[in-house]
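Subject: design request, 107 residues
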C-alpha cells in the first residue's frame, strides 16, 4: 500500500561513543504508515532506549538533553520526508520535509 514503510534503517551520530543504529526501532516501523504518529512515538522511544543502553557519548559542549532533542527533531524530519514522498502529507506541511528525503530509500 502507498505510504506504508517496507524497509527502514537509521543511524545517529554524536549521541553515543559510536554510531547508534537502532535496529529494533527500525524494525518496528515496517508495515506501518509513514504518517502514523504512534509509529513515530514508538520509533523515538526505541531510539532513546537504544541510546541509553549503549551509553551516551562523554559530555561535549552540548548537553545530553540537547543532543537527544536534536536527534528527535531529525527523526521527525525523517517521518515528514517519508510522508511527503508517499503523498500522505498535505502540501502545506510538505515544506517541512524539503531537502531531507535523501535518507529514505523505499516506502
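Subject: RE: design request

Done. Sequence follows.
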Amino acid at each position: 500500500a502507498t505510504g506504508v514503510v517496507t524497509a527502514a534503517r537509521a543511524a545517529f551520530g554524536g549521541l553515543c561513543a559510536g554510531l547508534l543504529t537502532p535496529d529494533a526501532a527500525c524494525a518496528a516501523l515496517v508495515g506501518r504508515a509513514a504518517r502514523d504518529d504512534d509509529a513515530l512515538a514508538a520509533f523515538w522511544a526505541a531510539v532513546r532506549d537504544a541510546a541509553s543502553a549503549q551509553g551516551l557519548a562523554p559530555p561535549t559542549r552540548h548537553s545530553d538533553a540537547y543532543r537527544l532533542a536534536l536527534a528527535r527533531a531529525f527523526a521527525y524530519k525523517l517521518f515528514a520526508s517519508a510522508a511527503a514522498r508517499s503523498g500522505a502529507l498535505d502540501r502545506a506541511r510538505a515544506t517541512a520535509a524539503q531537502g531531507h528525503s535523501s535518507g529514505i530509500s523505499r516506502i
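The chain has a mean pLDDT of 78.
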